[in-house]
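Z., the sequence and structure:
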Amino acid sequence: MTDFKLAQLPTELKWLTAIFLLVLSIGFFTGINFVHFTTDAHPQGIEENYLGNEDNLEAVEMKFRKTQSQMLNITHTHILSMSVIFFILSVLVYFTSLKLWLRKFLMIEPLLSVLFTFGGIYLLWSGITWMKYVVMVSGALMTFSFLGSVFLIYLELLRHKTTI
């Protein structure tokens, strides 16, 4: 396409991008903290969060099975919002100086992980309980891709301008 790189942005746009990434990261990791709080980052916790645990008399906190309306709301809002988040990050990653294979990976993987994570949550709720493992792995990959993309974009923003 072009040889433009983020390092060539004017200082004001570098600052805007950096602050955007900071705010986005705070929101993203607040969500990750919520997931940890509601599931204990454990497959059984993921299952209980969507299927409930009212049959477990020893449960510390009682959780009820989500309704179809709740599940459609969760999957709909997360798939839409996270696809926009990862699309924006992908565009920024594209304009870094990273090797092409790494850029491609960081541009595509998180979007696939969004599908596997939230599609997996819906399938888990539908009764395919082994999907909790797919959800856990894809969620971890999505988080690492987010973290890696943001870190590498910050590194690019810190580079000095070079002429085209």
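The radius of gyration is 19 Å. The CA atoms of residues 39 and 162 lie 47 Å apart.

Let me know what you think.
H.
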